[in-house]
Amino acid sequence: MNELKLKILDLLREDARRSPALIATMLGAAEAEVVAAIKELEADHVIVQYATVVNWSKVDDEKVTALIEVQMTPERGRGFDGIAERIYLYPEVKSVYLMSGAYDLLVEVEGRNLKEVASFVSDKLSPIDSVLSTKTHFILKKYKQSGIIFEDHEDDHRMPISP
Fold first, then answer.
1. In the CATH hierarchy, which fold is given to the domain comprising 58-141?
2. Deepest in the core among 78, 89, 113, 150, taking most CB within 10 A?
């Protein structure tokens, strides 16, 4: 991938609302070149979606999010892919990651309440034949997501001290 496309991806990751004209100005490139590069990145599924990061704690309709560690036995010939696909097709599943370490998959699930997430684990996830165990962690508060800090923080007004 060329340097222009990498720079475009970085700028769009920071703010997906940036226009091709602004990106072209920021990179010192022609707008037509930026438009063509973005279209190519979309066609190649490098850019999959433009998304908004929402601080749900500021909205009345809060959601419950859980991270679930899943230990499993890989399927013969398919490894973890088939089971991961079965899991990520559930609408309440937001992300699935193959992990190294103490567990195999990390599954991010979102629900309206604790009971809904618990029901997903007990009724849908745990009964899968290859699943050996699960460990659910409920997210109590998000401080930062996708590089965005959610909390308003005061600047440190202390005097710097140097030796």
1. Alpha-Beta Plaits (3.30.70)
2. 150
